Each structure stands twice: as structure tokens, then as C-alpha cells.
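Researcher: I'd like a structural prediction for the single chain below. Treat it as a standalone chain; there are no partners to consider.
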Amino acid sequence: QLQLVESGGGLVQPGGSLRLSCAASGFTLDHFPTGWFRQAPGKEREGVSCIGSSDGSTYYADLVKGRFTISRDNVKNTVYLQMNSVTADDAAVYYCAVGPPGITPQTLCAGAAGSWGQGTQVTVSS
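Model: Treating it as a single chain, here is the predicted structure.
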């Protein structure tokens, strides 16, 4: 009954922008810490950005800090990842995930997620 569906991926030029969406059903997103992860071919999944369930605190990986922004729309039950100044290193399949209630965004992005979406592909090309 818990489901996460990512959307918004596609082709973007270097330096361009893209906004990813993670829509939840079967539960209320703002009760859980939620995050964005990515995985490129041959690489392990890495935490990109996560947001807490209580105070809205956020965490960003060093490689995306200052370029990406995570946000939550409680009315739409959706979490977003705004990607700006995209580089070729940002190309990957992006997943959203939910962690146990009460954990910090830092802990979630370190790999504590328990429920995952199916992912959306981000391709960076000129």
C-alpha cells in the first residue's frame, strides 16, 4: 500500500536545470524523513539530498550543495528535487526513498532508507 513514484527525469544540457518529483500514496510524506538518491552504471547508490519529517531540516551531499534544493509540498504529498547547474557527473537514475520515523536527514542519506521508488532517468548531454 505504500508507494513512491518518481517523475521529471529526462534530457538536460550541461548547465541546465531539471525538477524531479516524488509522489507518495498510501501514507503521508511529512510524517517520514524522505530523500533523493542516485545510481550511475557501475557505481553504488549514493545519497543526494534528504529532508526531515519534523522540523524540515535538510542535508545535501557535498557534490550537489549549492546547486540542488529539496522541498516538500504537503498538500500534494510530494517531495521535489530542484537541480540547477547540472553537470555530466549528475547523470544517473534518481530514486526517492523514505526512512524510519525520527531519523535525521544525514542518517537517511547515509543509507538508512527502507522504502524506494522505481527511479527516473536523468541524462546530461549537449
